[in-house]
Design a protein that fits this description.
- The chain has helices spanning about 5-10, 225-230; strands spanning about 15-20, 25, 40-50, 55-70, 75-80, 90, 95-100, 105-110, 115-120, 130-140, 150-155, 160, 165-170, 175-185, 190-195, 205, 215-220, 240-250, 250-260, 265-275.
- The chain contains two helices and 20 strands.
- It folds into two domains: about 5-140, no CATH class; about 150-275, no CATH class.
- A hairpin with a 5-residue loop joins strand 13 (about 165-170) and strand 14.
- By secondary structure, it is mainly β.
Length: about 280
């Protein structure tokens, strides 16, 4: 998947001020003049700093796709997994795009990408502070929600081919990676999660229970009422897990699985997801 950098749209919007010596000064475009309708990659780098030394320590990288639509009541937006649900509305000004007015807002950076920067602390981590660099990069001028397949057979079941979303987390230190493959389910969504703890290649991964060691661990969770009615929890915490990764690289993951849920049910299925480059 190749991203359409917002700078292409910016080029057509900028004006030039002429000068007697033939030079030009490029004016910054107004956010209000940019059509935000389409699919966007929301990527966040969270930098961790040690407060006592002011040293940068590491970064966490999080990404997922968002759907935006220009309306006469504001910019309607939702994350991919919430698409078709109750929308939120963002605000455009001359210099900023706000998903929420209490945030700093996105501005155009030098690469023509919408960027929001902030700094914060967590009260439960008094020794550290964090810097967040949040970018919105256009993927397509149309809505893209078909990013793979998720099939689950068991007491909780689903077969979805048309609305698959991916949430990804990785780190600058170590090789841990988390992928969630999500689809609409009942009054919410369902998530097939893979926690990958080190460098791996496609192949078979098996483990016996929730506390067993494995380079890859899986779970199936949802906050949907129909899920709770069956499982009695928001997660299956699988045991007797067999996961066969058929394909795994920077752009795609696919495989088949079987396990026993904490509800005592037998589950099996398959998945395929196209990852954010």
């Amino acid at each position: 998947m190749k991203y359409l950098v917002l700078g292409l749209a910016v080029i057509s919007l900028v004006g030039c001020k002429g000068s007697n010596d033939g030079g030009t000064d490029v004016e910054d475009p107004s956010i209000k003049d940019i059509n935000l309708t389409g699919t966007w990659l929301m990527s966040n780098e969270i930098e961790r700093y040690k407060k006592s030394t002011d040293e940068y320590l590491s970064s966490t990288y999080i990404s997922e796709s968002y759907l935006l639509e220009e309306t006469d009541k504001g910019v309607k937006y939702s994350s991919c997994n919430r698409y078709s649900g109750i929308p939120n509305y963002g605000i455009k000004t001359e210099e900023h795009f706000y998903l929420s007015p209490i945030e700093n807002g996105f501005r155009l950076n030098g690469d023509g990408v919408l960027e929001q920067r902030s700094e914060y602390e967590n009260e439960w981590e008094p020794d550290f502070y964090y810097k967040s660099i949040l970018n919105l990069t256009e993927i397509s001028e149309s809505n893209i929600i078909d990013n793979g397949t998720l099939i689950v057979n068991g007491p909780v079941s689903i077969e979805e081919h048309n609305h698959i979303c991916v949430w990804e987390v990785s780190y600058s230190i170590g090789n841990k990676r988390t992928l969630e493959i999500m689809a609409p389910f009942g009054d919410s969504y369902i998530s097939f999660r893979l926690d990958i703890y080190d460098e791996i290649v496609a192949g078979l991964f098996e483990y016996s229970g929730p506390n067993s060691e494995s380079l890859v661990r899986v779970d199936l969770s949802s906050s949907a009422s129909s899920y709770w009615d069956v499982v009695g929890s928001n997660t299956l915490s699988p045991s007797d897990v067999s996961l066969n990764l058929i394909e795994y690289n920077d752009t795609k993951i696919s495989g088949v699985f079987s396990f026993t849920g904490q509800d005592g049910g037998s589950y099996s299925g398959e998945f395929e997801a196209f990852l954010h480059e």
